[in-house]
Design a protein that fits this description.
With 918 residues, the protein is α/β, with parallel strands linked by helices. Among the domains are: 8-80, no CATH class; 374-415 and 430-614, Aconitase, domain 3 (2-Layer Sandwich); 667-691 and 733-902, Aconitase, domain 4 (Alpha-Beta Barrel), CATH 3.20.19. It is built from 32 helices and 32 strands. Strands 24-27-28-29-32-31-30 form a 7-stranded mixed β-barrel. Strands 6-5-4-9-10 form a 5-stranded parallel β-sheet, with helices on both faces. Strands 14-13-12-15 form a 4-stranded parallel β-sheet. Strand 16 and strand 17 (380-382) form a beta hairpin.
């Protein structure tokens, strides 16, 4: 190793020596590096340690980071080498599929398949496959887990194969917890040590956008697409521009009645307004001293919602307390403390303020009870104005509702299994009980809040008070409790509040990410029928982080994020159009009205319950056998061998086409000419709109494919479970039930058509997006997508890019992009183009009926899209032969991304690199 700055040093902890790369060595040469933000110092150590090890890291890169200019626009590329990779099963299965396919391709090209193997630790937590079929019963968890195995046995067997076939790859079995909470409570190391005794900060990338939750522990990491994660697994550094860093100063303390959820919704709104897409956010200030680590993790979790790459907190005394509480070994806790203090990274009251690109500040005492919705997490609604806010939002929500029908919306039938119906038989809807604003789903779910003892305990205490007053949840509300780990159930039981939650039908339905990702299961038939027959805008209230259109449930249009105690409160009321100040939650057993203030938990009640019920022994016992799994997991019959034996009849796992016909050398890049528009879309098109998610409709292209392959509708499962099969997934791309493609004319009554439809140009016939794509590809016609602002926001779904590629889309032209999706498009060989500031499809008079030529692509590649080469010429030819020409910015942002694009994507690039390696 060059060790250009002489940074190698020795740190002794407990009599044991460790080799470290001291930041002080760089600070001696570049004194201004002392003022670098915490997160950039973590990156600086990463570059010091990998200088010369990775060909992508040079002394000049270290100099550039040390001399960081806070206000400068990012333009310097560096290579970040994460210490590990975190996955969940929805995104993890296609990653393992791709690795298995790469082994096949490596063999075909004459290389050694064993080269395709994770070079850094990879941990996959199965947490996204459990669905809320059974609820409100003491056997809900048992039944849901049984159905989970019934539906996903093939996927789980495949993952077990991967665990045996690949080195450095571990799988946490179903029923353990949500990956981010398991990461926070167990997987995170704080400090890594390698076989040579080198100690360095724990860092990671994850295949879920909420990987940032670990930033609350002072660990730098963020979500990437599965294709980037695979490259990181195979030893490729993550290419990035040195980011701007926004400092967020916290002061004061939360007021009584305000929760961590209210805090994070406030922070999300503030940072979205500030504009932090592609930036790091770093929290500092006196308010950290009294902010529990769980609250920090809650704030860090929602970095994707406020648009930042990460939202990080420094390591301090609270970090050490949490590591000790969660059962980390004392020697590790001591190493974390010693390492961060030695590096000047340990935060205390005397830590000087770093230099930031910009700052903003929040006095925690000003935070008030809030929700966010009805369709975006940044749209905070103060609880006191919720009734009026819903009334204001209703007309827009109502506009997309079809005329009332006599039957519910078409849904995939609930899977039948050994347990029969998946809702309590006694569910009835009293005449006139449901109306616009009725709450039909109340879910304590998602990693954001189920990791936080204070808000979970607040829900339990509120339930206890409600039961004591004789209150019940409304019968039409589908209730669920999905803890982030088994530790949660332990402390709720220890506090004596789990039974009260169960009395209100908040029974444990599973340990995983459920309602927040659309695994909400079917509504009770009576509720579904009423919603469809009356054309109602009904609501979900969930303690999640995502509420985008069509995500939670296809029949629910108004979705509000809220704290767990508010979820329980809205289940009691059964509606969101309630004024909590003047209207009661319900009527008590004594016949008197009960108001929210009567049952709202006090700060003292929650603190006392948390302090007495959370024990280190729970973490040690539960995580002591974290990889063992239950009897069903152990009973899986697992194939062996380094190469996977693909089953041609499988509808879950298939060898993808990404390497089909691939040569040792990449082919020449061609210009994009004569392209047609597959979809003309508006603002805030999320990866939920693009990527296949949720239930599979019988009459959809994916549903027809499954029926044609002998799969009965009851066994459709959901898109997320079939992410390992490209034929299913490409048919579900751009098939979201709320997608509005402006190429499709409205109905006769003027209401917009929603769903995965388009026109097959130049004709007028409306067909599915998949069918149009196949027709265009048969004729050799390239495709583009036209979009608005914040294109690709939301989850880090690799299939949003993979599906786009497989549908024949060569370029996307949008007003702005979210970070992960832009990167994923490049990683799949799709060009992200961006309208120049102030311009749009509308400003250029584009209707989507044009044909498009994109000039300068090949020339731009030769110049790495630097300077003037970044602006390409787009020429749109209208049906009458007239043309519109304008400049668009190519968002292939780094030289490394240029190499990915030249190779047809990141996976072919990595494969060729490994093939060439000696």
């Amino acid at each position: 190793m060059p060790n250009s700055f002489g940074s190698l040093s020795t740190l002794s902890v407990g009599g044991k020596p460790y080799t470290i790369h001291k930041l002080a060595a760089v600070e001696a040469v570049h004194p201004q590096a002392k003022k670098l933000p915490y997160s950039l110092k973590i990156l600086l150590e990463n570059l010091l340690r990998t200088e010369g090890v990775s060909l992508a890291v040079r002394k000049a890169d270290i100099d550039a980071l040390a001399l960081w200019q806070p206000k400068a626009e990012p333009n310097v590329e560096i290579a970040f080498t994460p210490a590990r990779v975190l996955m969940q099963d929805f995104t993890g299965v296609p990653c393992v599929v791709d690795l298995a396919a790469m082994r096949d391709a490596m063999k075909t090209l004459g290389g050694d398949p064993a080269k395709i193997n994770p070079l850094v630790p990879v941990e996959l937590v199965i947490d996204h496959s459990v669905q809320v079929d059974e609820y409100g019963t003491d056997h809900a968890f048992r039944d849901n887990v049984a159905l989970e195995y019934e539906r996903n046995q093939e996927r789980y067997t495949f993952l077990r194969w991967g665990q045996n076939a690949f080195r450095n790859f571990k799988v946490v079995p179903p029923g353990t917890g949500i990956c981010h909470q398991v990461n926070l409570e167990h997987l995170a190391r704080g400090v890594f040590t390698d076989a040579h005794g080198v100690a360095y900060p724990d860092t990671l990338v994850g295949t879920d956008s909420h990987t940032t939750m670990i930033n609350g522990l002072g660990v730098l990491g963020w979500g990437v697409g599965g294709i980037e994660a695979e490259a990181a697994m195979l030893g490729q550094p993550v290419s990035m521009l040195i980011p701007q860093v926004i400092g967020f100063k916290l002061s004061g303390k939360l007021s009584p009645g305000a929760t961590a959820t209210d805090l994070v919704l406030t922070v999300t709104q503030m940072l979205r307004k500030k504009g932090v897409v592609g930036k790091f956010v770093e929290f500092f200030g006196p308010g950290l001293a009294d902010l529990p680590l769980a609250d920090r993790a809650t704030i860090a979790n929602m970095a994707p919602e406020y648009g930042a790459t990460c939202g990080i907190f420094p390591v301090d005394a609270e970090t050490l307390r949490f590591l000790t509480l969660t059962g980390r070994p004392a020697e590790l806790v001591n190493l974390v403390e010693a390492y961060y203090k030695e590096q000047g990274l340990f935060h205390d009251a005397h830590t000087p303020e770093a230099s930031y690109t910009d700052t903003l500040e929040l006095d925690l005492s000003t935070v008030e009870s809030s929700l966010a919705g009805p369709t975006r997490p940044q749209d905070r609604v103060p609880l006191r104005t919720m009734k009026a806010a819903f009334a204001e939002a209703l007309p827009k929500l109502k506009a997309g509702v079809k005329k009332p029908t006599a039957v519910p919306l078409a849904l995939a039938a609930p899977a039948t299994g050994p347990f029969g119906a998946k809702e309590p038989a006694a569910v009835t809807v009293p005449p006139g009980a449901l109306h616009d604003g009725s709450v039909v789903i109340a879910a304590i779910t998602s990693c954001t809040n189920t990791s936080n003892p204070s808000v979970m305990m607040a829900a339990g205490v509120l339930a206890k008070k409600a039961v004591a007053r004789g209150l019940s949840t409304q019968p039409w509300v589908k209730t669920s409790l999905a803890p982030g780990s088994q530790v949660v159930t332990d402390y709720l039981t220890n506090a004596g509040v789990l039974t009260d939650l169960e009395k209100l039908r908040f029974n444990v339905v599973g340990y995983g990410c459920t309602t927040c990702i659309g695994n909400s299961g079917p509504l009770p038939e009576a509720v579904s029928r009423e919603v469809g027959a009356e054309g109602l805008v009904v609501s979900a209230v969930l303690s999640g982080n995502r509420n985008f259109e069509g995500r939670v449930h296809p029949e629910v249009r108004a979705n509000y994020l809220a704290s767990p105690p508010l979820v329980v409160a809205y289940a009691l009321a059964g509606r969101v159009d309630i004024d909590w100040e003047s209207e009661p939650v319900g009527t008590g057993a004594d016949g008197a009205p009960v108001f929210l203030k009567d049952i709202w938990p006090t700060h003292e009640e929650v603190a006392s319950a948390v302090g007495s019920s959370i024990k280190k022994e729970s973490f040690e016992r539960i995580y002591g056998a974290v990889y063992e799994g239950d009897a069903s997991w152990k009973a899986l019959r697992v194939p062996t061998g380094d190469l996977y034996a693909w089953d041609a009849s499988s509808t879950y796992i298939a060898n993808p086409p990404y390497f089909r016909g691939m040569g040792v050398m990449p082919p020449a890049i061609a210009e994009i000419t004569g392209a047609r528009v597959l979809a003309l879309l508006g603002d805030s098109i999320t990866t939920d709109h693009i990527s296949p998610a949720g239930n599979i409709k019988k009459d959809s292209p994916a549903g027809k494919y499954l029926l044609d392959h002998g799969v009965e509708q009851k066994d459709f499962n959901q898109y997320g479970a079939r992410r390992g099969h490209h034929d299913v997934m490409m048919r579900g791309t751009f098939a979201n039930v709320r997608l509005r493609n402006r190429l499709v004319p409205p109905r006769e009554d003027g209401t917009p058509v929603e769903g995965g439809f388009t026109r097959h140009l130049p004709g007028t016939e409306v067909v599915s997006i998949f069918d149009a794509s196949m027709a265009y590809q048969k004729d050799g016609v390239p495709l583009i997508i036209l979009g608005g602002k914040e294109y690709g926001s939301g989850s880090s779904r690799d299939w949003a890019a993979k599906g786009t590629n497989l549908l024949g889309v060569k370029a996307v032209l949008a007003e702005s992009y979210e970070r992960i999706h832009r990167s994923n498009l490049v990683g799949m060989g799709v060009v992200p183009l961006q309208f120049k500031a102030g311009e749009s499809a509308a400003s250029h008079g584009l209707t989507g009926d044009e044909t498009f030529d994109i000039g300068g692509l090949v020339a731009g590649l030769d110049k790495n899209f630097d300077g003037a080469a970044r602006e390409l010429t787009v020429t749109a030819t209208k049906p009458d032969g007239t043309t519109v020409a304008f400049k668009a910015v190519c968002r292939i942002d780094t030289p490394q991304e240029v190499q990915y694009y030249k190779n047809g994507g990141i996976l072919p690039y990595v494969l060729r690199q490994l093939l060439a390696a000696k």
